[in-house]
Design brief:
The structure is a single chain. This protein is mainly α and about 100 residues long. Helix content is about 60%, strand content about 5%. It is built from 5 helices and 2 strands; from the N terminus they run αβαααβα. The chain has a two-stranded antiparallel sheet with strand order 1-2.
Length: about 100
C-alpha cells in the first residue's frame, strides 16, 4: 500500500504520505488512546472522505458498516481496531479517487 511506485521499497516521501493518510488519522481520531475507534471516533476519522458522508450520517447504516467490517455481532462490534479501520479507509480512498471526488 505504501509503495505507490511499485519499486519494491518505499522512500521517505512515500512513507510520510502513507503515515499521514492512515496512521496519523487513526491516532488523531482515537481520543481515548485505547487503539480502538468508537462510532464517534470513526466518524471523525472519516470526515475528510466525501463518499462516506451520507452513509456515516445515518446511524443505522453506520452501525451496519461497522458490524460488517468487524465481524463481531455483539457489543464489541461498535468498536473497530486499526486493521479493520484500514480496510474501510483504503476502500473509501480508492472509491473517492475512482469517482473523481
Amino acid at each position: 500500500m505504501a509503495d505507490f511506485k511499485k519499486e519494491g521499497n518505499i522512500d521517505i516521501n512515500q512513507w510520510r504520505l502513507f503515515r499521514n493518510m492512515f496512521v496519523a488519522k487513526f491516532n488523531t481520531a482515537d481520543a481515548d488512546k485505547n487503539l480502538f475507534l468508537s462510532p464517534a471516533e470513526f466518524v471523525t476519522s472519516m470526515a475528510d472522505i466525501p463518499v462516506l458522508t451520507k452513509t456515516l450520517a445515518d446511524p443505522i447504516q453506520q452501525a451496519q458498516l461497522l458490524n460488517d467490517v468487524s465481524g463481531r455481532p455483539d457489543k464489541e462490534a461498535a468498536t473497530i481496531n486499526f486493521f479493520e479501520w484500514m480496510f474501510i479507509r483504503q476502500c473509501a480512498v480508492a472509491w473517492s479517487v475512482g469517482s473523481g471526488m
